[in-house]
Design a protein that fits this description.
Blueprint (H helix, E strand, L loop, with lengths): L2 H17 L4 H28 L4 H33 L1
Length: 89
Amino acid sequence: MNHKEKESVFVDLYDLYIEGELEDESMEWMKQHESLFQKNAEDLKSKTCLKRSPGAEEESQIRYMKVYLSSMYICFILLAIWMTVWFYF
């Protein structure tokens, strides 16, 4: 594995490493490479936190679903009104 690959693996596993949720082999690997990549991992994590909050994507999806459902209800009501008027004339 080259240096860039090791760095990206370290960054990907950094949160789990901090929380202590890695297996023994992975923890040992992270400890060995901590001095090399810890600063980069912390910098990357702080930049991604500033860009977008953790629940922003979920909130966006919920908002999209609300708009979609509202538009479907409106279409159904308009179709029901149109069919009622068409039926009686």
